[in-house]
Amino acid sequence: MTPVSPQEHAQAAAELIAFALRRVRPGREGDYQQLLDRYSTDLSFRELTQCISKGLGLDVLAVTRGGLVLSPTVDSVFASKLIDMRNTGMDADDRLVAGLALLGIAAYAYPNSVDFDDPDARTVDIAGIDAFIRAAAHSLPAPTPESTESIVSARRAADVYLDWPDYVPTAAGGRYKRGCTYRALEEVLSWLESQGMARPQPALGPNTHQLTDRFRVLVADEASNTAYEALAAVRRSLPTETTS
């Protein structure tokens, strides 16, 4: 067997990272699966891949059925932001509602720490998420002088969210008008889809999405977020019919 040169080793690691960044599925790319197998069995290759990733501002979080899960650092050139989901600008209220929508989806789907170890895909729909967020928004406590900034922001976002109507159809019908929470959730779920963290499931119902392993792993990595923990606690306390 011909020894692998350091250059070939580095090129293979870079190819693995490229596959992950393109968010293709290993089952559709045989070379990707081979590189994932190599990552899982070859310690030196795994360490080299992690080193190159770190230099690019990426953390390797896990290997899942969907491939290598990378998380960009805040200042990474690969970092994606919710404000990028629109071609037009987002004002302060838009950003607050979008942020709460994203946290709400995460808490709705993964309210318990054991959920992060469950590989079964979670399915969510806009109506169910909206009902949960509204119930949670009513339950979130008022901030105190000791409250963290994330809790203060969550309460502010909750007030804005409750002030918006849930569903306003467009004149043409079939979509939601900007300025309602269904539209905000639709935009966030579409953004998650573009990031490889959700897949539409129209066969399961309108406005229904399946969350991917990538989303599960990334939420687990950020689960210490105070606002997420507050929403997850509300989710655990609500009766099932409130959020169905």
Please describe what this structure looks like.
It is a single chain. The chain has 244 residues and is mainly alpha-helical. The protein has 9 helices and 5 strands, in the order αααββαβαααββαα. A hairpin with a 7-residue loop joins β4 and β5. The radius of gyration is 20 Å and the shape is globular.
Note the main attributes of this structure.
single chain, 244 residues, mainly alpha, three-stranded antiparallel β-sheet, two-stranded antiparallel ribbon, 9 helices, 5 strands, 9% strand
Overall residue-averaged pLDDT value: 86
Widest β-sheet, arrangement of strands: 3-5-4
How many DSSP E strands?
A: 5
Number of helices, counting only DSSP H or I runs of 4 residues or more:
9
What class, by secondary structure content?
mainly alpha
Strand content: 5-15%
